[in-house]
Specification:
2 helices; 51% helix; 3 strands
């Protein structure tokens, strides 16, 4: 072997302790992933409500942003003004979606912070 070359093929041997560090890091990542999955399941079970038109239209969404229900008060159903009803539905949906986003940020923000903003 050539003088000054370690481990053959010109490569240095890894530090014996680095394997333990890598295993610990991998375990930590797996625990974080399991915790995230649990939190996502809990979020999916939560519901938020979005409204518009002073409660004329109500949208209920799950925490994973699946639409659960839509309620429309009969007095806002005007066949001559369908556009207003459409706007109320969109506004209620967007209100519920914003609440879902806030709920998700509250639950998942801790993982983003621990990963240094990589998520």
């Amino acid at each position: 072997m050539a003088k000054g070359v370690r481990g053959g093929f010109g490569m240095k041997r890894p530090n014996a302790g680095s394997g333990n560090n890598m295993q610990a890091l991998l375990r930590q990542a797996q625990q974080m992933q399991a915790s995230m999955e649990k939190d996502k399941e809990e979020l999916a079970g939560k519901e938020v409500e979005g409204t518009s038109g002073g409660g004329a239209v109500t949208v209920v969404m799950s925490g994973d942003q699946s639409l659960k229900s839509l309620k429309i008060k009969p007095e806002v159903v005007d066949p001559d003004d369908v556009e207003m009803l459409e706007d109320l539905i969109v506004a209620a949906f967007n209100d519920a979606a914003a609440k879902c986003d806030a709920l998700n940020e509250e639950a998942m923000g801790k993982y983003n912070a621990s990963l240094g903003g990589l998520m």
